[in-house]
Write a structure and sequence with these properties.
Helix content is 46%, strand content 14%. With 404 residues, the protein is of the alpha/beta class. The chain has two domains: 12-191 and 382-402, Rossmann fold (3-Layer(aba) Sandwich), CATH 3.40.50; 219-379, Glycogen Phosphorylase B (Rossmann fold), CATH 3.40.50. The strands form two sheets. The chain has a seven-stranded parallel beta sheet, with helices on both faces. β11 (297-300), α11 and β12 (321-324) form a beta-alpha-beta unit. The longest helix has 21 residues, at 382-402.
């Protein structure tokens, strides 16, 4: 009997390795799937799974298909709270999943996490949720907060796993009893490809990519969607103050304008800042590495993040960081070691930290950058994140086999 049990377990393990699942990855933008989850998509495809990416269409859809995944367009009102539009989104997910019959649905960002999870339950497909951040709804207490809490309780009660990117968000769910504790797990961010994001300081033997040396004119860079909630206004005001003391200092902005968001900054406003001579707007780029390497310090005064990917990439490329002491930002910075933490929504304190960075010697800034790289290697390696996904997917595949 013991030999029979062992034989069954061995056969199950073999089948788990061989079984091919259709996995739907759902997010609110194609851009986020490409920029944050390309490594995961490649790993899933390499393991023999079929990957179907579901998101609203944008110019990055072709990049998803170039990875080998299939891309399906599903429109959604990412920031709206109109109940009829959200009901239509739920019905659209149900229709899509009925047609595709996925073996697993993995959802990112607020609306996909809620509505794709509900739709997956409707069609009896296993689901995994990744809470990339709680947005602004939990920064205040009102009727909308209560309604969103109810949506999380209903939608997440039957998923297979709920990943969180930072401890604070997971603690919020735990304290408010939004989901069963047994389903909750902390992921060390969405991970960074350390072979892709590197510099001469992090890997002196690398010769295929040259380092762009920062100019003698100290340069600070904010990389984010142009939103007030990203602290762009505080960054501009701090730049205005610092340039009175250090007029040669350069302050740049890189990221999407005209985004669908209630806190979006208008193109007119950015043009006014540029015309005033405070900042330079660099537009957008599909590869941020040159911009990171060509800066002395990366700044993100955000009000709240899941885990800031731009900060992780910058630290991986040995750049010191200035960011706010808030959820999802402070996780990346050890204050005074690989950068500085400043008060949120406080341009004066941000300006003080920028001046502190300016007063450091080049060697001191370089040392901070190297410390940042070491921190990312210890805590945020993409390979660790992907291995956890693969383990959970294997568990789901095993349950699928045992129920056949």
């Amino acid at each position: 009997m013991l030999m029979t049990m062992l034989s069954k377990r061995l056969v199950t393990r073999i089948h788990v390795r061989e079984i091919e699942l259709k996995i739907c990855l759902v997010a609110n933008t194609a851009w986020s799937l490409v920029n944050f989850r390309s490594g995961l998509i490649r790993a899933l495809l390499a393991n023999g799974h079929e990957v179907v990416a579901v998101a609203p269409f944008d110019e990055h859809a072709a990049r998803i298909e170039a990875l080998g995944a299939r891309f399906l367009v599903l429109s959604m009102d990412n920031k709206g709270t109109h109940p009829l539009r959200d009901l239509r989104l739920l019905l659209a997910f149900i229709k899509l999943f009925r047609h595709e019959r996925p073996d697993l649905v993995i959802s990112y960002t607020i609306k996909p996490v809620i509505y794709a999870s509900l739709a997956a339950r409707w069609v009896r497909a296993p689901a995994v949720s990744v809470v990339t951040g709680l947005g602004t709804v939990f920064l205040r207490e009102n009727l909308l907060t209560r309604f969103v809490e109810w949506l999380y309780r209903v939608s997440q009660s039957k998923v297979q796993k709920i990943f969180f990117l930072n401890e604070d968000d997971m603690q919020t769910f735990r304290e408010r009893r939004l989901v069963p504790v047994v389903l909750m797990e902390r992921l060390p961010s969405e991970g960074v490809d350390l072979s892709h994001f590197r510099s001469d300081e992090s890997n002196p033997s690398v010769g295929e990519r040259s380092v762009v040396a920062p100019s003698h004119r100290l340069r600070f860079l904010l990389m984010a969607r142009m939103l007030w909630d990203k602290g762009v206004g505080e960054y501009v005001e701090a730049a205005r103050q610092v340039r009175q003391l250090y007029p040669d200092t350069q302050f740049d902005l890189l990221g999407f304008l005209d985004v669908q968001n209630s806190t979006a900054i208008s193109r007119t406003q950015v043009d006014e800042w540029v015309q005033e001579g405070i900042v330079n707007y660099l537009g957008i780029t599909h590869d941020v590495r040159d911009e990171i390497l060509n800066t002395d310090c990366v700044v993100l005064p955000s009000y709240r993040e899941g885990i800031s990917r731009t900060l992780l990439e910058s630290a991986a490329m040995c750049r010191p960081i200035i960011t706010t002491d808030v959820v999802g930002c402070r996780d990346v910075v050890d204050d005074g070691i690989n950068g500085y933490l400043c008060l949120p929504k406080n341009s004066d304190d941000l300006a003080r930290k920028i001046v502190q960075m300016i007063k450091l010697t080049p060697d001191e800034r370089k040392k901070m950058g190297v410390q940042g790289r070491m921190k990312v290697e210890r805590e945020f390696d993409e390979r660790v994140v992907i291995s956890r996904y693969i383990a959970v997917i294997s568990e789901i595949a095993m349950r699928k086999i045992t129920h056949v």
